[in-house]
Specification:
Organism: Roseibium suaedae
CATH architecture of the largest domain: Orthogonal Bundle
Helix content: over 70%
GO biological process, one term: DNA-templated transcription initiation
CATH superfamily of the largest domain: Winged helix-like DNA-binding domain superfamily/Winged helix DNA-binding domain
Family: Belongs to the sigma-70 factor family. ECF subfamily.
Order of helices and strands: HHHHHHHHH
CATH class of the largest domain: Mainly Alpha
Radius of gyration: 21 Å
Number of strands: 0
CATH topology of the largest domain: Arc Repressor Mutant, subunit A
Domain RNA polymerase sigma factor 70 region 4 type: 106-158
Domain RNA polymerase sigma-70 region: 18-80
Distance between the termini: 64 Å
Largest sheet: none
Number of domains: 2
């Protein structure tokens, strides 16, 4: 099938997904105008890469993946862009050591591997792959409530395995944070 043969149905299926894409984008960025920009970027990338899409597979899942990846790319880019003409922010920079992030990820992967397969599958589909509960339920061949229950049990199990009791359990430990804070004050 050539690109021109594929385009009309590709375009139609892509346009049908727009309302869902926009709703997902609004939930990610929180601002309708930025969400519209994100959806537009997603559609532009999808159109440019339409030959990599296989008709008959889930266009919605493919588009959601592109949107989610674009969102995180933009967030990383914004995270690197700081307006600091007088050097005020630069003089106070201190960074959480990178090895802690790698160790945290290793701990998370180990904890994830300890979950029962059905819970691990559900939390990956919802949390990492960006599918809705309904889509994940269709993928797993079960009820939406079952997926919600599996995700809830998985989150609770991960908190227990990782000994997470509150938001202070994320990021640097108290000792590392105090060293970073003192370095920033110097």
């Amino acid at each position: 099938m050539t690109k021109s043969d594929q385009s009309p149905s590709f375009k139609r299926v892509m346009l049908e997904a727009l309302p869902s894409l926009r709703a997902f984008a609004v939930s990610l960025v929180g601002q309708p105008d930025r969400a519209d920009d994100l959806v537009q970027d997603t559609i532009m990338k999808a159109w440019a890469k339409q030959e990599s899409f296989t008709m008959g597979t889930s266009m919605k899942a493919w588009l959601f993946t592109i949107l989610r990846n674009e969102f995180y790319s933009q967030m990383r880019k914004r995270g690197r862009e700081v307006s600091d003409p007088d050097g005020t922010f630069t003089s106070q920079l201190a960074v959480h050591p990178g090895q802690y992030g790698a160790l945290d990820l290793q701990d998370f992967r180990e904890a994830l591997s300890q979950l029962p397969e059905d819970q691990r599958e559900a939390i990956i589909l919802i949390g990492a792959s960006g599918f809705s509960y309904e889509e994940a339920a269709n993928i797993c061949g079960c009820a939406t409530g079952t997926i919600k229950s599996r995700v809830n049990r998985a989150r609770n199990a991960l908190q227990d395995i990782l000994s997470i009791t509150n938001e202070n359990d994320f990021g640097p430990d108290a000792e590392s944070a105090s060293v970073i804070h003192r370095g920033a004050m110097a």
